[in-house]
Automatic annotation (TrEMBL):
Name of the molecule in the record: Beta-ketoacyl-[acyl-carrier-protein] synthase III
Domain of life of the native organism: Bacteria
GO molecular function: 3-oxoacyl-[acyl-carrier-protein] synthase activity; beta-ketoacyl-acyl-carrier-protein synthase III activity
Any single biological process term in GO: fatty acid biosynthetic process
Top EC class, one word: transferase
Originating organism: Streptomyces chumphonensis
Source lineage: Bacteria, Bacillati, Actinomycetota, Actinomycetes, Kitasatosporales
Pathway noted in the entry: Lipid metabolism; fatty acid biosynthesis
Keyword flag Lipid biosynthesis: yes
Gene: fabH
The family this protein is said to belong to: Belongs to the thiolase-like superfamily. FabH family.
UniProt-annotated stretches for the region ACP-binding: 266-270
């Protein structure tokens, strides 16, 4: 406390603590068999190469904000209501190029007036958002933050592209973070983040931004679609999530043997297995939902947390390691001890 200014608080008392959790999936479920009937692929190829059996897809009248509002409302309810001073939305698929989608989501949740903005880090978006939200709390800008990660990734895909359509699904997950102590369960550990723009070509949508304009002469339909160099991305994902996980565990003062649950971005079941093996984390400690929802990009980790809390895969006291990798390239990892039973 200063003599004549406002009270100052030690950083340890301005940690971000998880206190609310929710998710939402659009109701339409598409099976591998359905995709195989219109694409040059097979149920067996998709399941064996990715671990995916079904995914949820948003219909033509559903935008990212619609999923975000549903997930955000559930997270706020799980947190017992109350005010938040900021809404951070992690997404690769905003409703519009301008403005950001977060202010609209905040207004529809009845929170006009609060800080609201988007974070764009593709599949690492939730972890970038987590670091941002924790920073808002540490800086004194907010006491409580709603962080939503929502995607309608299907809107980026070439419907004829068998290399991307089977992989991605739509969905949203959300968390509420409150100011608390770094020592209490639910406190977000140090967040390790990284990027490599030199490899941006591995995951990209070429057209529609300022470099290649949507109405410019170079624009052709395929350039507006998402593309990915899968095999190289796979290799980078395993390497980067492994490295980031080691750094986050060390920064938290943990050791890898004490990790109870690995919550890795659900890109491919084989990628999660390789990361776990690289870290010597037993397969039984890996949390999965990719079989049911596919790769939901930024939404992947909070969606998985929310479902795992509901089905009892995550229980109070579990030491949880989260890691993600995505376009940019971007990657990250962080830790938390799973908080009380009233979440999810
Ligand atoms: O979310 C973060 C970023 N994303 C990721 O981390 C995803 C990382 N990458 C992957 O998960 C995998 O690379 C994929 C699932 C995308 C692809 O699996 P793969 O085992 O790496 O396959 P591949 O790209 O090396 O292709 C192997 C073969 C190719 O045929 P040829 O050239 O060997 O004759 C592909 O044309 O499989 C073919 N193929 C398919 N065949 C049937 C590719 N997609 C399909 C398909 N059905 N859907």
């Amino acid at each position: 406390m200063t003599a004549d200014g406002p009270p100052t608080t030690a950083p340890a008392d301005r940690a971000a603590v998880l206190c609310g959790l929710g998710h939402w999936l659009p109701p339409t479920v598409v099976t591998n068999e359905e995709l195989s009937s219109r694409l040059d692929t097979s149920e067996e190829w998709i399941r064996s190469r990715t671990g995916i059996s079904t995914r949820h897809l948003a219909g033509p009248n559903t935008a990212t904000s619609d999923l975000a509002v549903e997930a955000g409302a559930r997270a706020l309810k799980s947190a017992g209501g109350g005010e938040v001073q900021a809404l951070v939305l992690a997404t690769t698929t905003p409703d519009h190029p301008c403005p950001a989608t977060a202010p609209d989501v905040a207004a529809r949740l009845g929170m006009t007036g609060i800080a609201a903005f988007d974070v764009s880090a593709v599949c690492t978006g939730f972890l970038y958002g987590l670091a941002t939200a924790a920073g808002l709390i540490a800086a004194g800008t907010a006491e409580r933050v709603l962080l939503i990660a929502a995607e309608t990734f299907s809107t980026l895909l070439d419907p004829q592209d068998r290399t991307t359509v089977p992989i991605f699904g739509d969905g949203a997950g959300a968390v509420v973070l409150r100011r608390g102590s770094a020592e209490e369960p639910g406190a977000i550990g140090p967040v390790v983040l990284g990027s490599d723009g030199g490899r941006r070509e591995l995951i990209a949508v070429d057209a529609g931004g300022s470099r290649r304009r949507a109405d410019g002469p170079a624009d052709t339909a395929p350039d507006g679609y998402f593309r990915m160099r899968g095999r190289e991305v796979f290799r980078q994902a395993v390497e980067r999530m492994g490295e980031a996980s080691r750094s986050a565990v060390a920064a938290a003062g943990w050791s890898l043997e004490t990790v109870d649950r690995l919550v890795a971005h659900q890109a491919n079941a084989r990628i999660t297995s390789f990361v776990a093996s690289e870290l010597d984390i037993p397969t039984a400690r890996c949390v999965h939902n990719i079989g049911r929802v596919g790769n939901t990009a930024a939404a992947s980790i909070p969606l998985l947390l929310s479902q795992a809390a509901q089905d009892g895969t995550l229980t109070p006291g579990h030491r949880v390691l989260m890691t993600a990798f995505g376009g940019g390239l971007t990657w990250g990892a962080t830790t938390l001890v799973w908080p009380g039973p009233d979440l999810g």
